[in-house]
Write a structure and sequence with these properties.
Spore Coat Polysaccharide Biosynthesis Protein SpsA, Chain A; 45% helix; seven-stranded mixed sheet; alpha/beta
Length: 254
Amino acid sequence: MTLGEPAPFRACLVVPVYDHGQAIAGTLAQLRPHGLRCYLVDDGSHEACRRELDRLASAQPDWLRLLRLPVNSGKGAAVMAGFERAAADGYTHAVQFDADGQHDAADVPRLVTLAASHPQALVTGVPKYDASVPKSRLYGRYVTHVWVWINTLSLRIRDSMLGFRVYPLAPALQVWRTQHVGRRMDFDTEIMVRLYWLGVDVLSLPTRVTYPSDGVSHFDVLRDNLRISRMHARLFLGMLWRLPRLLARKAGLV
């Protein structure tokens, strides 16, 4: 590689975990065949989950790296801790994959292949739900979709909430280090909008999403809805400040 050329594409997995002790072994078993180094980030889990993560990491040291946050800091903080370590280890891209068993690991190669052919883009899954999806979650997502379309002046982001995507690490870390990004249930949407504002394109692929009957949800209806509402207000103000550039981008002038 000569000076000024981008680093060769290298992808890994980053899986944030908070008390998903019952699901994580099955999730990792589906991910391992794809041959990507996996950073497992424990977001301050309780003892039972900690022991399970220790067991998994010690049994599979050839591909698993276990990182720990001392206290529960939120999904965003856990994902970005994994990104920081992955970038330090020389990876250019990371597949974010939730630990709870909702996502279809068979689609990892499809997203990675698309990311490899468009290394400057953020590649995200767009959920295809089955009958297991709670209707309240489904309707709530549409509200967020509308706000995202307003705050980007674009329909380019088809889904901003799915935790299955491939990030280019350099711009993701730039946004994280220099701008306000939510740490918890507001993370997935806010970092995607801010990356779009930075000029990162968003590419989408459909992927199956299933809500396990025994799945663990950490969504707090009151607190997380308040966080998400504040996030939309924050992004709307940010959109107004960036309005001239967004309009120029929409017109193809930048």
